[in-house]
Amino acid sequence: MTASDGDSPVGGGSEPTETSILSLEDGDIHVCQDGPRDAPALLLIHGTASSARSWDPMVALLTGSHRVIRIDLLGHGRSAKPADRSYAIPDQARRVGLALDRLGVAHAVVAGHSSGGVVATALAERLPGLVTALVLVNTGPGLGAFIAESAAIDLSQWPPTDEQLRGFARTGFSRAGYRIPEELLDDVRGMTRHTLIETMRATRSYLEQRGLPDRLAVLGKPLLVIFGADDRRWRSSSASDYRAVPGAKVELLPGLGHSPLLEDPPRTATSLLAFTALHTVRAF
Questions:
Q1: pTM, entire model
Q2: Quick one: fold of 5-279?
Q3: Whole-number Å distance between alpha carbons of 117 and 223
Q4: What pLDDT digit, counting tens, does each position of 61-96 carry?
Q5: CB 3.0-4.6 Å disulfide test: which of 49, 114, 154, 265 passes with 57?
Q6: d(CA 151, CA 156)
């Protein structure tokens, strides 16, 4: 683990983000931490072709009550992008578990956006004692909910042109007048063609094997599903599939699309915090 360095404040917070690189056997993993280290841990996992930066607008809204941890999955952001390592969902979850162990985190509420929710589910399957509760934000329950034609990106050339990038990114938002942050486009540009293809293939494979509601129903973990009602990548009506999970809470956010954490951080944080207040375990 390298020495931590202070970045500029994230999401308007008053304290700089603590960043570090964790050297794991199959690649370096970039980690961001905010908030009191003795507060209950809240892990935030980004989606495909994104990074920990996608949660930036939420961080300052969460650190009053949580130790907020964000991880760049292998192949994304400032983490390593090897061509000879597995990007399968269980392997990504294994790395997340190792990273939390290195950070001394024994219990955490885990929130994932889009395919980050798939990794969160796999983490709960692998380490049920670590994950106290799950929050899935616009995570499709199965492949039948995917709106394929609106979420396609042309991989025949790499890197994609700015026009192609913006066309792909636009399907991630629905709020009128929302301006897509340039750094989110940079996250896609920063990936390799191999890591993007393998990441998308891994999510598809995991969902083909078994849908998320079936996986979650047997875990017995408290579950909150937040879904932008105007999602253009996953049918928002599919959020009701999660009601098959005993005790699951499902919230649709009108006027928001695939990325409510970016389109309306306060509204998204309000739902998340009300849930985590009931299911956090304080560090000792």
A1: 0.93
A2: Rossmann fold (3.40.50)
A3: 11
A4: 999 999 999 999 999 999 999 999 999 999 999 999
A5: 265
A6: 15
